[in-house]
Specification:
The chain has 1 helix and 21 strands. It has about 325 residues and is mostly beta strands.
Length: about 325
Amino acid sequence: EIIAKENQVIVVEDENMEITVEGPGGMRVHIKNDALHIQSAKEIRIEGNGGGDITLHQSGGGVCVTAAGNVKLFGNDIQIEGDNGVSLNGTVSYTIGTGASPRPTPQPELQPTPFDPLKDAKAPEIIHLAWEYNTLYADESIKLMYMLNNVNAGDTAEIKVLLKTNDGNKHIDTLTQPVSSSTEHHTLNWLRKKEDVNTDQEATGDDITVLDYIFEVNLRDTGLTSDLSPITQLLPNKHIKPELVLRDIPDIDGIPLMYINWELTLNDEILEEGVTDENGKADITTPLKIGEIYLIYYNGTELEIEPQEKYIEPDNSDEVNC
């Protein structure tokens, strides 16, 4: 028993020293290394007389019971959990400060996502419109292709070729083809004569050096019309089709390379692939445009092809003028 008429201070100089206070009813107060542990077999009660706040505080968070009897919770992250639920009686309000938010974070309201209507698998359609090449020349035929699905056999396909102008698409030619099956792939040859090309140039303007053509397909009986095809470009005055021999050394003195793979590209797009013949010749069928520089890759070699009005055999250079 320690009795003091005034303030009493117990000073412990050894930081490892322990102070323990025990009572017969299971009460225990233990102090060690600046840690305080209070244990009781019965009620633990902290009570004030209203002269000030009672606060439990730790690293910016805690609980405060004010002298007026109000309870405040504060901290960086406050969680209230209950196995059987949490009940709040009376008017409830809270303030969300900067950087704080209630947990869990509310999710945005779900919005309906539009989707394309279901397609009838048996509906008639005209699809896969395409040109054989992306460039062509006057008086040289080119294939146009399309596919029919679920159409009436005996109908007639009408193919309209259109010229793109500043005033819109101009209808310049019409081809027809009978439909013999409900589902089939069609191919037609189309040729634009030199005199017609001159007329097309006048329709597009004197400054136009390349003519753009597209086509669409219409079924006469059913009235079904396709989307527009991709573009093919016609070069009115130049027909460039080089006869190129690939050599181990890219000049006239090199040895022709037989049966090797080659690849023709423009702006990193592969236009054509092939294999040289017994004379080392690369049979390039893609029409080449004046003013463009093409690359041909073969046997670890990169060769430039620059189309001109006539083909010139390369001379001690990696560049080929066509």
